[in-house]
Amino acid sequence: MNPKKIDLRQYTPDVIRNFSIIAHIDHGKSTLSDRLLEYTGTLSDRTKRAQFMDKLQVERERGITVKAQTASMFFEHEGKKYLLNLIDTPGHVDFSYEVSRSLYACQGALLLVDAAQGVQAQTMANFYLAFDQDLTIIPIINKIDLPTADVARVTRELSSLFDFKPDEIVAASAKTGIGTKDILDAIVTRIPAPFGTDEAPLKALLFDSWFDEYRGVICLMALQDGVIKKGDLISLAQAGTSYEVLELGLMYPEPTPMKALYAGQVGYIITGMKSVKEARVGDTIYHKKTHVKPFPGFKPAKPMVFAGLYPVENENFEAFQEAIEKLTLNDASVSFEKTTSTALGLGFRCGFLGLLHMDVFRQRLEQEYNLMVIATAPSVLYKIKLKHKDDLIDIESPSDFPDPGQIEQVLEPVIDGTIITPIKYLGNMLKLCEEKRGEQQNMSYLDETRVILKYRLPLNEVATDFYDQLKSLSSGYASFDYDEAGYEPAPLVKMDILLNGKSVDALSTIVHKDKAYNIGRILAERLKKTIPRQLFEVVIQAAIGAKIIARERVAPLRKDVTAKCYGGDITRKRKLLEKQKEGKKKMKQVGNIEVPQEAFLSILKKS
């Protein structure tokens, strides 16, 4: 279809279907998006490429969706033309607020499940997210062409867990295109049309935005009511700012300009915004002179995990700063501020929505800007009640931790975790959760071979190497997902790492009092292995306040200063050795200890 000949006025809300695809990582979400776009002729042979909706290199490599994308399709069903808007959502819990806003713009969702792997932790989390928003959910079993596919088992799982009837489930293979028409027919017949009219005042939900260096901020929005045209003056309810609409249109699948957008439709607008911080996800767009009631549930992005990011070479700091500023133009949820570390020099203290978010951000810095980055151990946001103050203070870095004598209570963030694991790895999973101070909430059997575990866990314990351990202890078969569950009191202390009596702030960490001795000993041993030998002795100590709880020593390199001293009196050799001894003492006073990146990585794995 020629985009220039599209008249959007004929697509009234009753022929519009807004839907998203929700799935666990690697269950075929991006591949199914490709098939739907191809089947409806939205993608031509010239623009076709695998994983079309995943624009970032990190998305294509990891098989995950980081940024929400949208595509409009035109589909004919029983002689009637329909406008289908696919609102692609990130699948990971770190982006759950972005997912919830994207789902708020939809009336239905396709729940995609791998025919070989079955229901996973994220499948359940995404189902309940869509279910809570009252969306019509169409279950789809994908990858039915695989030799290991077990459609009957997965059908039983969907029926027992989510009460789907077997005849509601669509069998498909996104890779080969089997079932694509059945899915499109189900979207048209089962998903309800959006409600809204062109006559009502303009009210649109802003559910995503990104930065284009030539055109500024591009916002994605879903119109509930009204009409928006080029040249209109619009306002944002939460931001309290006003703009002129410079361009608007459909994502077909790239931005395609149109004259106007009407009630029920999904499209983009460009208003000349300079930063995505102005276009906050969940905001309400309306015409400047007419006020409407904003959409409920708006909340600004709140970082949960904090880490220091430093360039490996300090002379690269300017390029590093520029790269971080450019990346945050596209990701308003990352907070950053300049910081200085005695060990690592100039860098930034960054706040992220979660661990995957942090890892993706670091990977994008390395891939897209060709920088070598050191990331310190992630820490979470603690709340501390001081003895002489009523208010709680927020602590995001171990270096901000107050004196233990002033602390009345420390509160740490906790999560409700869901683990789905084969029964033979159940013992390993229970042991891992107990080690991470987990509290079991529930255990139920998914089928004869798999168990669902529900655990309350401290976010600090999950923030380091929990996911790696979970995968290695289950041979990669267990899946994990979590939701925030507020704050709970815990006996936490700050542990400093001292190198030759000097505290290294980037190596400090906050640990549970009962585990401090064990963690301190392990970290001191690891640092002994990773810090190279110097020309002077290096003493590694783990300390809580003034109390040393672990000590290791890196012996100095010995230079044979008497090698060229042939013959003569023994006092000549003694004189040289005494001179070396004095030199070593002096060197210890002024010497800088070389701390390699491996030392900081060793802190990431606390146990």
Overview of the structural elements:
The protein is of the alpha+beta class and 607 residues long. The protein has 5 domains: 3-190, Rossmann fold (3-Layer(aba) Sandwich); 203-287, Elongation Factor Tu (Ef-tu), domain 3, CATH 2.40.30.10; 305-376, Elongation Factor G (Translational Gtpase), domain 3 (Alpha-Beta Plaits, 2-Layer Sandwich), CATH 3.30.70; 382-490, Alpha-Beta Plaits (2-Layer Sandwich); 493-604, Alpha-Beta Plaits, CATH 3.30.70. The chain has 14 helices and 32 strands. An 8-stranded antiparallel β-sheet has the order 11-10-16-7-8-15-12-13. A 6-stranded mixed β-sheet has the order 2-3-1-4-5-6, sandwiched between helices. Strand 25 (439-445) and strand 26 (450-458) form a beta hairpin. Helix 7 (317-330) crosses helix 8 and helix 12 runs antiparallel to helix 14 (597-604). It is globular and about 110 Å long. Residues 51-55 have low confidence and may be disordered.
